[in-house]
Write the structure tokens for this entry.
Amino acid sequence: MLQRIDHVNIVVEDLAAMTAFYRDVLRLRVTREITIRGDWIDATTGLKGVEADVVYLEAQSGAGLELIFYRSPRGASPAGLGEANTKGLRHLAFWVDDLEAVAASLQAAGVELLSEIQKVPTAQVSFEARQKRIAYCRDPEGNLLELCDFQ
């Protein structure tokens, strides 16, 4: 039986820039940095000759974030990655304490929000009778992020 989501993995083109964004802008904590290679990762991924650098990050609670840069073999960059309706895993959502403060911090760091903070109708989404509020942005490589809180 599943216990919980352990982590989310994002394959990146620029590990340093992506680490800086998630660490410095979103304030996740780097917990480990490693290089992976060997028969075990080739077998796991179904790829040959895997060598990859990995940075693990965590928030105060919840699933971790794993950024991975494949030195080899190099992968494809799918079209439409940052569009909300592109098939596949489409966004990573962060529950924050103060959405206005996080949004202001992101904007001060040069991150563009895709809209003003939106109130989700409680008939559609609520949590313990509180209203969800959300805003979307993109990380430096175009991955779609949702920031949310409940009031």
Notes: The mean pLDDT is 92.
